[in-house]
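Homework help board

Subject: predicted structure for assignment chain

Our instructor gave us this sequence and asked us to write out the predicted structure in token form, then describe one feature. I got the tokens but I'm not sure how to describe them. Can anyone check?
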Amino acid sequence: MKQFDTVKKSIHSDIRKMIELQTLLSSIPAIAPDSGGEGELKKCEALTEFLRKNGFSGVEFQRFDATDSRVPSGIRPNLVVTVPGKKDDFSIWIMAHMDVVPPGDLSLWKTDPWNVVEKDGKLFGRGVEDNQQGLVSSVLAAKSFLDNGILPEHTVKLLFVADEEFGSTYGIKFLLREHRNLFGKNDLIIIPDGGDSSGEAIEVAEKNILWMRLRTMGVQSHGSMPDKGKNAHLAACDLSLRLNDLENVFNEKDESFVPPYSTFQPTKKEANVESVNIIPGDDVFFMDCRILPRYTLKEVRARVDERVRAVEEKYGVKIQVTEVQHEESPATPADAPVVKRLAAAIKEAHGITARTIGIGGGTVGALFRQLGYNVAIWSTLDEVCHQPNEYCIIENIEKDAMTLAALFFQE
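My token output:
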């Protein structure tokens, strides 16, 4: 296909421009107010200006701002850039998020996290992989069509959202609640924010998530007189082991997930008493449970309740269970159009045979799937997100842009 060859050459010749965009985006810390930041507005405005100056002057820009009084501007922006196609029977959405997490301990960084450094074919800086690689790849693919006067077969919509790192309340949740008419049921929705280093993994399913806060209430006493108290910490330890043992109850395996089984893990522990010689009467710990979709949260909650009651009876304590977070969503079928088309584009661009996978983590893809939209999450990356010395491989920006370009050519 001569046009595809033209687009590929255009993508390759624009890599330095995309490094310039990566550098610009990382220089503006789009951190949520939850972490003491000012949100995404400055980054969104800089991105808009860059696009208008670099080939996107004749396309439609739409802003959908969510109100948030915690940031100086009072808003959290969500931007849609529409590239018209030959047909408008469905749209191809490429969704990336503008916000990033804080850099963490700066002593662990070898470079300034807000000043992108290029070295050994990589870009180092906060946000360069999560999620600026996907953002920049989508820009690069669309720009190659605009620069060469080529229309995609179907309308392409680049979506840049806020607040992905802290729950998406002001990002995709806001759009799906207040502007759901943006998305058609037949639209292809791709989120380049997960995958593997080969670019062949298409994420179509997530484990169900159940996070629990478990407060055990007993009776405080002196450490030498446990008979006068009811040791809340001891009861909590027993309960954490019993809940962890649910991995042996919900024990089926699905090799498309990593790990291929359901996990029930005690995690966070709150402080209880200040002295070694006090038996605590109050104790709090948390569980992070990631459950294969073949099991419902209703089933899991019933087993959790059984074990909570057993510990209460054994130790004479009361236990309060609070669900901190729960997510239960269907999978995108492996033969859904978005999966088949993306797999065909990967094959066309790189000769790679794609495979579908499930993950234990939660993504914004679940928010779409819960509402009946089929979504594919994919990218070519090493998954170093949130780490010090975060990097992206420059070649992967180009590689993923070519995959998206192949997708845009599909009839």
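Reply (TA_rk): Your tokens look well-formed. For the description, you could write something like this. The two ends are 13 Å apart (CA to CA). That's the kind of observation they're looking for.
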